[in-house]
Specification:
The protein is built from 4 helices and 21 strands. By secondary structure, it is mostly beta strands. Strands 6, 7, 8, 9, 10, 11, 12, 13, 14, 15, 16, 17, 18 and 19 form a 14-stranded mixed β-sheet that branches. The protein is globular, with a radius of gyration of 19 Å.
Amino acid sequence: MAVRVSSRTDRPAVGSSRDRSTGHGHPSGFRRHRGGGDPAVDHGDVPMNQLTVHRMHGLGNTVLLVDVRDLVGHDPQELAQRWCAEAAADCMLLHERTDVPRHSILNADGTPAELCGNGLRCLIRLGIDEGWYRPAGRIESPAGSHEYSLCEEGVRTSMPTPQFGFESVGAVPSRLPCEVAGDGACLSIELEGHRMDLHLVSTGNPHAVIPCSDVESLDAIDFIGPVLETHPAFECGINVHLVHVGSPGELALRSWERGVGPTQACATGATAAVAGLARAGLVDSRATVSMPGGVLCVEDGGPDGTTWNSGPADHLEPASLRLD
């Protein structure tokens, strides 16, 4: 059942979505951002105490990309909080140049995350541009191993096989009064007088996907997002997404990300939306997902196949940030 919920014009908004420029054409097919609306990050000439950090974005989801060796002797979680605030970033990726490249993720509030799909594409793009990575290969995240290659949309990456239901997202069923449909992957709950369906999906990290009957209802993410993110049923928090199905192959999505708030895009959330709704027979297994930051192509491989994301990864102006 698709819910019609009050928009943010009816309720006070919690937080605000970061608005970022989409940049201009770049010969490689990717866009490099210079100036525009980017934050001016300048702490003066203190070379020993500052670091020039790569900034990139995937569909407006801005990330900081840092070599883990540069942070020896420093607290990465404290730096993630401070640097993300100063550089208008949603998260920080700490990468290691091992035989099979790997990385970890810290949200803007310093908490760790299992996967950032948009950040993953950005790190791959940076690694290829800098000559660290081959044009096609494998890379590891806390959520597992990912294949990648370049594609027409930008970068194509494999995603963890979607999992469904309470256990997949670490939910405590007794704390979430609801009606359970089928095997527990879809729940019917009442929130602030509105009856809505929750599709619980893990794509490396936990997601609650809520279908909406019209595009206008997607604006209610500013209200519903923080309520569910911190709900006692989700002890480790959860990413929340409102989705409208325009056609079986076209979705519109708004996201509230755990530890961040409203974002321009969420690749793992877009993957969760396609996987959850395809499982319910509401959309095709291949779909485009439109978000405020742009469009992501998702291919859901089902329980026995590989799930893929394809989308852009764009450079932003680097940031000079203090280490202490």
